[in-house]
Amino acid sequence: MSNDNIDEYNLLTSMESRHRKERKELQSKIQGLKKAAKNDKTRKKELTTEIAKLEADLESRQTIEIEELKRDNINEDSSLLDDENLRQHEDIKLSKAQKRRNKKNQEEQERAEQIKLQEKENQHGPRNLEMQAILARLKERHLNIFTVSSDGDCLYKAIEHQLTHRRNIRVTVDELRKNVCNHIKENKDDFLPFLTNPNTFEMLTNEEFEDYCENICSTKVWGGQLEIRALSNCLKCPITVIQATGPETIEQGNEYEGPPLIITYHRHMYSLGEHYNSTMTLVQDEIDNQ
Fold it and tell me: Mind telling me which PROSITE patterns this protein's record contains (predicted)?
């Protein structure tokens, strides 16, 4: 290997060593940022964008440095490149894996920017305005939202959480669905007048009523006002639903004793439709910081 090739190899080796060190230092910095933001939800959201930018900036700078080294070596030796030089030149080209990482980092950075822009646009949208109104009403009761997943079981999961949180009662979503199904069947005269066919708007036939009840316990069909009433009757306890518009609360089962199960109703939380969440009691530190 000629002296020029040795110099080129040394430059490349030195650069690669420095790049590895820079990547390790960045990962250490990212871990420190994540640790600092562990209990700060707002900071966690901002951190996703910041980390993506830090990684993309480092990848971009290192890529430019490698490209500049390639150009310098090509310009100096363009008339003298032999087979060995060509192989070395190929070695310092960006690998396919590196290109994929660069592309992925760029896409992540763009996505983070889009999320940040969307969140800014949503500040005055119906979802955010609804959430602010519900949180304000919860604050008066020293409560906060406990989020449950949006999968058709949200009402039952919210009640399941309330029973555990407020009454130390363990019951599954499937058990709640089965109880509601049976209660509505057994009290058909009380519920049937409020059930209509969504296409004809006529009261359900006996067959349609049976199908309605069966779907409650065998599918993830969404629960509403009638199911809340049935849950209150089955559990023999009051249920309070806090919402943003209309009456501040909807009360069911006030004839029963004990503290109510308190859930929240959201019209605009998800694009798929309405949603229920549970609630949690605020600790004193959270109350003071609000």
Answer: OTU
The dihedral sign for the CA sequence 133, 135, 138, 142: negative
Check 161, 183, 266, 275 and give the catalytic one: 275
Catalytic residue (one of 153, 154, 161, 266): 154
Q: What's the rounded Cα separation, in Å, for the pair 59 and 23?
A: 9
The reply to whether the predicted model has a pTM over 0.90 is: no
Of these residues, 40, 72, 151, 174, which one is catalytic?
151
Q: Which distant-in-sequence residues (6+ apart) come within 8 Å of 111 by Cβ?
A: 52
The residue assigned the tokens 């609804």 is 130
DSSP H helices, 1-95, are: 3-36, 41-77, 83-91
| Cβ atoms 252, 238 nearer than 8 A | yes
Q: Is 275 exposed, middle or buried (0-12, 13-18, 19+ CB in 10 A)?
A: buried
Q: Is residue 134 within 8 Å of residue 242, measured between CB atoms?
A: yes
- Residue 181: which of 154, 236, 219 has the closest Cα? 219
User: Rounded distance, CA 148 to CA 129, Å?
Assistant: 20
Q: How far is CA 150 from the centre of its chain?
A: 11
pLDDT in tens, the chain (290 residues): 555 555 666 677 777 878 888 888 888 888 877 777 777 766 766 777 788 788 888 888 888 887 787 776 655 555 444 555 545 555 555 566 677 778 878 877 877 776 566 566 556 678 888 999 999 999 999 999 999 998 889 999 999 999 999 999 999 999 999 999 999 999 999 999 999 998 888 999 999 999 999 999 999 999 999 999 999 999 999 999 999 988 999 999 999 999 999 999 998 876 667 899 999 998 744 544 55
Are the CB atoms for 217 and 181 separated by under 8 Å?
Answer: yes
